[in-house]
Write a structure and sequence with these properties.
Radius of gyration: 17 Å
Helix content: 25-40%
Number of domains: 1
Oligomer: single chain
Number of strands: 10
Shape: globular
CATH superfamily: Dihydropteroate synthase-like
CATH topology: TIM Barrel
Strand order of the largest sheet: 8-7-6-5-4-3-10-9
Distance between the termini: 18 Å
Length: about 290
C-alpha cells in the first residue's frame, strides 16, 4: 500500500508531507540542561532561537523541541518545569514569520504539555513512550487533530537499558507498534496522522540498534511513515571508539544513508546542515 501524504493545516501555515517524494529532516532542539549530546546549550530562549534559525537556514523541515531529557537514567522534570522550558520557545519561533514553512514538533509524554504547546503554535507530537505514559495522550491528540509519532520504548529512561532482553527483537517491536497504532485509531486519530519510530537506542543494546537499522524495511508492514533517530548515539560511538557525541557526525551520516536505503521517511538529527546533504544524495540514489 502507498503511504498517503500528510496534510497539516495550522493557523496561517499549511504543510504537505509527501512521503513518496523525499526524506524529511527533523532537527533536534533540546531545551534541557542534561540531554546526552547538547544539554545546556539551548536552554534559554535566545540560544534556542539562534539554533532554530541555523537549522532553518540549512534545510530542516521540522523542529523537534524537547524540555525533558530521555537519555539513559534521565531525571524526570515536573510538568511546570517542562512547560516553562518549552512554551516560551514555541511562542518565540511562531512569532517569527520566517519559520512559517517549518513545522514544530513537541517531544513530550505529557498530555498537558501537548495541549499548551499546540495552543502556542506547535504542529506535531513526538511521544517516546508510544503514548503509554499518560492515559490522556491519545484522546488529547485526537481532539486537537494533530499528527503523533509513536515510538517503541520499554520501561522509562531510568530503567530502559536494563530491559533489553528480546526473543525476537524486530517482531516484538512491530507487535508493540501495531498495538499502539490500533489504540490511536480507536481514540479517534486518523491513520494518516500516525508516524512510527522503532526507538533505536531506547531499551536496545548497540547490537540491537544495528539490527533495527538492518531490519528497517520490515516496519513498512505497519503502513505508516517511519522516523529514525540515530543521531550521535552511543552505538555509533562504540563502532568508532568515540566517546564524544559531537564527534560522531559522520558515523551518524552513515546510519542516515542506510536508513534512507531501507525506507526511512524522517531523520531526527542534531547536525542538520551535514545530514541535509547526506539526505539529498541518498534520495537521489534510492528514491528514483
Amino acid at each position: 500500500m502507498q503511504l498517503r501524504p500528510m496534510q497539516l493545516h495550522r493557523q496561517t501555515r499549511d504543510y504537505c508531507f509527501d512521503w513518496r517524494s523525499r526524506t524529511y529532516l527533523m532537527g533536534i532542539l533540546n531545551v534541557t540542561p542534561d540531554s546526552f549530546s547538547d544539554g545546556g546549550l539551548y536552554d534559554d530562549v535566545n540560544a534556542a532561537i539562534v539554533q532554530a534559525r541555523h537549522m532553518r537556514d540549512n534545510g530542516v523541515d521540522i523542529l523537534d523541541i524537547g524540555g525533558q531529557s530521555t537519555k539513559p537514567n534521565a531525571v524526570d522534570v515536573s510538568l511546570e518545569e517542562e512547560l516553562h522550558r518549552v512554551i516560551p520557545i514555541v511562542k518565540a519561533i511562531r512569532a517569527d514569520r520566517s519559520f512559517d514553512n517549518i513545522a514544530i514538533s513537541i517531544d513530550t509524554t505529557k498530555a498537558v504539555v501537548v495541549q499548551q504547546s499546540i495552543e502556542a503554535g506547535a504542529d506535531v507530537i513526538n511521544d517516546v513512550s508510544g503514548a503509554t505514559f499518560d492515559d490522556q495522550m491519545l484522546s488529547t491528540v485526537a481532539t486537537l487533530n494533530v499528527p503523533i509519532i509513536l515510538m517503541h520504548l520499554r520501561g522509562t529512561p531510568k530503567t530502559m537499558q536494563q530491559l533489553t532482553q528480546y526473543d525476537d527483537l524486530t517482531s516484538e517491536i512491530i507487535t508493540f507498534l501495531q498495538s499502539r497504532i490500533k489504540a490511536a485509531i480507536a481514540a479517534g486519530i486518523d491513520s494518516s496522522q500516525i508516524i512510527i519510530d522503532p526507538g533505536i537506542g531506547f531499551a536496545k543494546t548497540s547490537e540491537q540498534s544495528l539490527q533495527l537499522l538492518q531490519d528497517l524495511a520490515k516496519f513498512k508492514v505497519l503502513n505508516c511513515p517511519i522516523l529514525v533517530g540515530t543521531s550521535r548515539k552511543s552505538f555509533i560511538g562504540k563502532i568508532l571508539d568515540q566517546s564524544d557525541p559531537s564527534k560522531r557526525i559522520w558515523g551518524t551520516a552513515a546510519t542516515c544513508c542506510g536508513a534512507i536505503a531501507k525506507g526511512a521517511n524522517i531523520l531526527r538529527v542534531h547536525d542538520v546542515a551535514e545530514m541535509y546533504d547526506v539526505m539529498r544524495v541518498a534520495d537521489a540514489i534510492w528514491r528514483q
